[in-house]
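Re-running the complex after MR caught last week's input typo. The corrected sequence lines follow. Everything else is unchanged.
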Amino acid sequence: MSENHTVLSKVFTQSTFKDLINGKPNEVYGSCVKRYLNDAYNELENKTVIDRIYKILMTDYRNEYFYKNTLLNKLLLGRHSINTTVALTEVPIRKSKADFVLINGKAVVYEIKTELDSFDRLGSQLNDYYAAFNNVCVVTCESHYKKLNRLLNNTSVGISVITDRNTISIRKEPVEDNSRLNHKAMFGILRKQEFERIISNFYGELPSTSQFNYYKECFHLFEKIDILEAYRLTLTELKTRNIKAIDEYKKVPTQLKFLVYFSNFKEDDYFKMDVFLKEKFKGE
Amino acid sequence: MYFPYLRGKQFELIAIRELVEYKLIGKNILPIIEPVKLSSTLTKTLELFSQEARFIAPILNPQVGNFLNEIKNSDSDKNAEKFVDLLENQYVLGTHITNENTVHELKSLFEQGIEKDNIILIHKNRDYLAQYSETFADKETRYNLIPDESVFRRTIRHNRVLFNDKFAKKTRNSDYINAIDEFFSDDHLYFADDGYKGFSDYSVIGSDYIESGFAPYAVAMHIVYFDEKNNLRIRHFVSDSNDDIKDPAGKFGEALTKLVKWNKEKNLDTYGIRKLMEHYENGTYPGLGTVKKLSVMHHIELMSDFLNEVY
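Corrected-run output:
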């Protein structure tokens, strides 16, 4: 894997696309196109340009964006349904951040270990995830698989491999493990209005106390709910974080699905993106 | 005279604006503002100072933030127009940080009508002293902010203001627990004897410029006070439960409880401190920006009271 490809990682980011769809010049995009498409970018639509850049990502530089985007396309859009399943990313759990979480009836944390990653923090990461979710799966590449399988042999952690043909191969199913679920870790994921809904639904009212004690009081009440029930209520709340404008989202090209899913797009943004994709590449 | 050097962020600007609005500071305070953003808060602050016949010094070549870009690309932006108009006001003193283009940049400021003896210069780098000498051979600046080093003192003989970062910034807020009470400054005691017209510092914020804060693990408040010899010291009040970024209100409550207890003996009584006491009484959390605003207001009001008594 050549490190010279790092500019590719900067293309598929929210800040780059925010510039592009708003018609602002973006250096990362411009220089990347010139570098990877040589002189063959003239008269090409941006949609085609992005498709070509993504192909380079797929074959030469399978970075975290590629993994995340593949998971989202194959699992959320392929296997499940966008209407009933919610994806989360960068979910802070204790001292770790979960790369990708899918929630439908059940919830699975996907920890991504690309060919560019090491396993240094894997043990503590997995431990943290089990405090908030009961299914965990590591997603990796063929070359990491053997080592990972040895590491996780007698655990409940699942293993999936994104194969060289870019399909997801399930090598080890995750086993549900509720033994480490922890009220504090779950509560830490919830936004204020989410834990408030849980508490007022469960108890019929919210604590009346000073702002200094409010969070602690709310947690106190949450902690008293049976752990499996608290987990169920937490998942129900997290599932409300669904994206808006699902019909427009369906038209987003595969290469950009992950990016757009987590960009909080409004209808207007979809329209602007459509305009950008149909435009010819302008250079810088 | 005290020259608090502040970055033109929302809460820093509101701090000095409210100090003037509530008549909490005297004419011994001349704020230096390094604008980081073209905003209505910035122009409103300059407006208020000029209306109240109080000097304020915006830096015209800020080294941090996005101000210069914003003013360049501001076709018919109201705030940009206002800012340019305000520079003509006698109470708004154009200020310049010396750099490799100083001769050239100053020339263009003079062409825009800014007077040589009304400008404030900030000298951070000795390499540009020659450019200062070249431009100000005939007339002196209003003030020169310089570090306390002989190389600057040798070249700059007049209207010197002693300029230092007094705030010992720590990487993490929880690090202040290891030194909760520190010496801050005695410049206000010695500047005149040492041949300075005034002194300047980055208040309780420090010289590091951070574009946008992220949620901290610990909440820390930095409160300055005088010891029995009138040295300025700083005390840090830090929250206890600092394991995650959650519950800033609760952490603020923890830090504030320590401040309230400490102040029962110290009896600091400025607007900033009184407001913090009110939040304690009411159990309210105003947000971290306001907490910073109140601690800066406290510092500047304290310095103003000191200078009013002595000078």
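None of the earlier attempt is carried over here. Residues 30 and 277 of chain B are 28 Å apart (CA to CA). Chain B touches chain A through 14 residues (CB under 8 Å).
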